[in-house]
């Protein structure tokens, strides 16, 4: 999984939750995740990704750590 993440990209990337299986805290910073409204009582994050009314794609937002 991590081998598919561009090593020279400096922005924020959305990756599947399965990324945690190969997560290296020295290499990546986890910034957050997309969240459903039910997990966001103030409704500041908006809806997650939905298909036919069901949330289908949970993503973590990550960024390369500076060396």
TrEMBL record:
<protein>
    <recommendedName>
        <fullName>Modification methylase</fullName>
    </recommendedName>
</protein>
<dbReference type="InterPro" id="IPR025247">
    <property type="entry name" value="EcoRI-like_methylase"/>
</dbReference>
<dbReference type="Pfam" id="PF13651">
    <property type="entry name" value="EcoRI_methylase"/>
</dbReference>
């Amino acid at each position: 999984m991590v081998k598919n993440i561009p090593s020279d990209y400096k922005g924020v990337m959305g990756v599947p939750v399965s990324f945690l299986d190969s997560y290296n805290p020295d290499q990546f910073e986890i910034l957050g995740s997309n969240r459903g409204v039910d997990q966001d009582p103030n409704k500041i994050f908006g809806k997650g990704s939905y298909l036919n009314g069901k949330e289908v794609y949970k993503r973590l937002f990550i960024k390369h750590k500076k060396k």
